[in-house]
Amino acid sequence: MSPRIHLPSGLVTFVFTDIEGSTRLAQLLGPDYRPVLREHRRLLRRTIAATEGAELLTEGDSFFLAFPDAAAALTACLTAQRALASHEWPTAEAMPRVRMGLHTGWAEPRDGEYVSPEVHRAARIAAAAHGGQVLCSASTARHAEPLPPDVSLHDLGLHRLRGFDDRERLFQLVAPGLERQFPRPRTADASAHNLPTPVTSFVGRHAERTELKRLVEAHRLVTVLGAGGAGKTRLAVELAVDLVESHPDGVWFVDIAAVTDPGLVAFEVAAVLGLRPEPGRPMVDTLVEYAAARRMLVLLDTCDAQPAASADVISRLLAGGVGVRVLATSRESFGLPGEVVWRIPSLSVDPPVDGAESDAVALLLDRTAAARGGRPPDPGESADLRRVVRRLDGLPLAIELAAARLRVLSVGQLAERLDDVLGTLDAGRADPDSPADPDWPVEPDSPVEPDRPGGRPETVDLVAAAVGMVPPSPAVRAVQRSATERHLTMQATVTWSYRTLGPRAARLLRWLAVFAGPVDLATVEWLLGDDPLDPLSVLVDKSMVLAEPHASGSTYRMLDPIRAYAARRLAEAGEERSARNRHVAWSTHAMERAHLGPDGRPVTLSLYALDPLAGELRAALRWCATGGSARAGLRLAGGLDQWWRERGLAREGRLWLFRLYGRIAETGERIPEAELAAAYHMHSLHAGADGEFAEELRYSQRAEAAARQAGDAGLLARVLAGRAAPLVDMGQFAEAERICREVIDWASGQEVLGDALFGVFSLAELLWRRGALDEAAELLGAARPVEAARPVERGRRSVDMLLGMVALARGDLIAAHEHLQVALRSRMSHGFHGRACDTLNAMAVRCAAGGDGLTAARLFGAAGATRASMRCAPGIYGGYWAQRQGELRQELGDATFDGAYGEGTELGLEEAAALALAVEHPDLAVGSARFGAGHARVAPRQSVAPDRRRRHTGHA
């Protein structure tokens, strides 16, 4: 440096510049680098000569300058950058990209140089800049005011410069002709991360967070899989916050959602890490070289937007350095060596054992309070809150959207409207199927060669925006908006995945929508009529179908919001009628199989076999009542006849039948009289169980008329045998008994007594009621083999139940105990819960008669609570149970009885049955007469079933 140069003193603005990637540029250009470097120096000196700047040092591609005026220094940098950008370089790759840093501080020159920390601060600011960028300190920004009208300084926030303990606020020079978009400054921030800051609280997921953290700490690549809206990103970000301190070189969040070209994935990661393209070198190589010596965690979000390109970048990163870990979120896995795939579960909808709310309900409570201006839901809405989260399968996005609807609806109203999941959750939002910009295709037309952006203009824009070369264009902003908006509605979220499916996988997804619950592989194959393994694997890999392994084989199911979307697509594709009719056929076949053993022969009906099918049968019934065959629906309803009443769902059964009648009227479909008679008879029984006695009689009469038209003796016997029920319910006991006797005699003459078994049981109940115990016992003894021969009825063990009642009336506790235990055990074993409640009441009477009043009160309480929950009519025994409870209350006293009864109401049906079955046999009790002096009791079945005599007259 010439000693004649005047060096400013006092407030001095120091400027450092150098060429970003100069080594790579020199390697690329070879001998041509020297003239480029020389031209770069000439341009910078020419701009500095026009200012008051003093050139202190030029070394290689670097300049060190000092200015007495901050505004002049900024002007010099602006002029230099414009000159560099407008100059005609030999090639585009040969253009040197110069970074510049400025700082203003107090300094005095000595012996032609500055020895001051302010110089080092300026150098660190320059080192934090990127090629083409001008950064300055807050001091320079303050002393450079006022700025020209077209020039401004953009505040980049506080940053810790290398070697300095304090934080410096950095500003970027913004002016026409200068680039604006740059990666974050290259500074030594104490907490190196760019994790997004959530605006809502994180709720629940304690177990999942712990498990995922363990996996990330133990493995270098962990992929969080899940359906759209499952909460993958939110959980991954929350976990990453905990891992910042254990990764010295940072935790970096990269969103792949807006990347529409495979070649841009490496650029997106590099931009987040503060890297820029190097001339003549693939971006991924620059990325790997940077990461090789660092210990950092890269969180790649929404990798399913570019799965293949993401997998390539991940594999290169992991192979390049052992200190790099990757946590990825996606709807499909990469299949890379060493990849640990962790499927995020839906939020728990079951409350924990400590009595707190489930995670799903807790999230809905939190978001509902926010939607209602801080007012939490009323405690009376708790049951409906649980209904909502169960209906939404605990899917976090669906719960968030549901909470937004609660600004308009009550929780109960929302729960009632969730049959239309998409319509309810997406109400009031724009159609997600339309692109954000009508002139911009969201889906890429064709890929470009990785690391060599080109082809479509919008692809070039995306590259440029990713690395900070230009501001985002309207097309780029449209892509970015579409990526953000994919979570604004459920439909947009699922569409994001649906568009990636091939024809076979898309068709299978649509057809699976007809199923209400999980299905096995054989069922999927039956549905398609083809091997489903390939398209099913695609759907599972993309998290659109959940595979749930069991010992007997995997089952497959869709979350309800995805099923609703697929159902909408099924209708749009014109495939709904074919798919749903096939589902009805499958449901009918499955229901019939529930009545058969492995050998195809009828077995004792167990209602437990129908429990898993209930959802599918309801879905099939819904189609039959709205778009399919009402006749097929009546057949399905007939298979659920006893199940509805034994599960306390008689009202639901009646409603389905009313809908099917309406469908018949709408379509004019011809239903054979025999099938109508069976439906009307079933309807009558449902109405009686639901306490609608007038309706019960009306449909019994309709059933009789239709059965007579059909000319089927067995059917007519079943219908007429049920006629006593409405008469009993209306208190016409004598008339009911007369009808029963006529039906039994007529059925015997027609050799269809088995079909009149219901009439036999009704008559036995009537005989028991008026004290004709011997005749009742004789009648039941004759009915035992008839019951045993009928698989659909023998599981109820009605003969044993009634013989137990007869024995109670006689005071024969031994016979009562044995018969009732047999009946209760069979009813519980075969799922006849409504009838099991009657048996529990009978066992309560037996316990009271045996001196165990506390157990009797508990059983009364359990039976009463269960029947109340099932909304069952009391039936012929109602008055008897009430009388016995009143007697027991007098015996025990109100307080003792109420305490034991209350304990019983807390018992589930299985617990109550276990309590009743554990009651000690009367023969084993202390003081039993059987073990008295030489006294022996008559065997119970002999005592209640004397010689069979038939005394029935009349005809039907």
Automatic annotation (TrEMBL):
Start-end of Acidic residues biased regions: 434-448
Family annotation (Gene3D superfamilies): Nucleotide cyclase, P-loop containing nucleotide triphosphate hydrolases, Tetratricopeptide repeat domain
Cross-referenced SMART domains: CYCc (SM00044)
InterPro entries: A/G_cyclase, HTH_77, Nucleotide_cyclase, P-loop_NTPase, TPR-like_helical_dom_sf
Domain (Guanylate cyclase) ranges: 13-126
Region (Disordered): 425-458, 936-956
Ranges of compositional bias, category Basic and acidic residues: 449-458
Signal sequence coordinates: none
Protein name listed in UniProt: Adenylate/guanylate cyclase domain-containing protein
Originating organism: Micromonospora reichwaldensis
